[in-house]
From TrEMBL:
Native organism taxonomy: Eukaryota, Viridiplantae, Streptophyta, Embryophyta, Tracheophyta
Protein name: Reverse transcriptase domain-containing protein
């Protein structure tokens, strides 16, 4: 019942009423790709070597350890929708003793790839949540991204590694969103 209730059967796009699932999907993709998609790769990248003395970067570029992965897992928010892999943070926390070696191995593989191939994992499913009960057009829906759990953990591990360096990276006049 819930799947049927949550399904979008009809939508008004530019004055036309769409009912065909393929047309609905194409319209949604075009609309949200223009809002959320990336048009061009970045022309410049952040070069940490220019910002921090190289001797201070060693801990940012170290292999991932079991304890830092576990710290990231513990800090993931609870009660979030699963991503394309179907796993939630609660599942991982409850099964950690059983799956931790597999996750450590995955993170060792990610480290060995040195950033190559991460784009396959860094993908999301987009689901549309109606903003109101009589949602009719694409503007009446709020998109949420459902991200792979490994990608969430990777981002958390990297943010935990980077957090101690933020005072060196961000000017005091631009640190409004840095804790402390």
């Amino acid at each position: 019942y819930r799947k049927q209730k949550n399904r979008i059967h009809t939508m008004t796009v530019e004055g036309a009423i769409l009912t065909d699932p393929a047309n609905l999907a194409a319209a949604a993709f075009a609309h949200f790709d223009s809002l959320l998609g990336t048009d061009h790769p970045r022309e410049c990248a952040l070069n940490l070597d220019d910002l921090i003395a190289p001797s201070n970067l060693d801990d940012l570029d170290a292999p991932f350890g079991e304890e830092e992965i576990w710290q990231a897992v513990k800090q993931l928010p609870a009660r979030k929708a699963p991503g394309p892999d179907g796993f939630t943070a609660e599942f991982l926390r409850s099964c950690w003793p059983v799956v931790k070696q597999d996750f450590v191995h995955v993170f060792q593989q990610l480290y060995a790839l040195r950033g190559r191939g991460f784009s396959c994992l860094n993908q999301a499913l987009l689901t549309l949540i109606p903003k109101r009960s009589d949602a009719a057009g694409l503007g009446d829906y709020r998109p949420i991204s459902l991200i792979h759990l490994v990608a969430k953990i990777f981002a958390k591990v990297m943010s935990l590694r980077l957090a101690p360096k933020l005072n060196e990276l961000v000017s005091p006049i631009q640190n409004a969103f840095i804790p402390g």
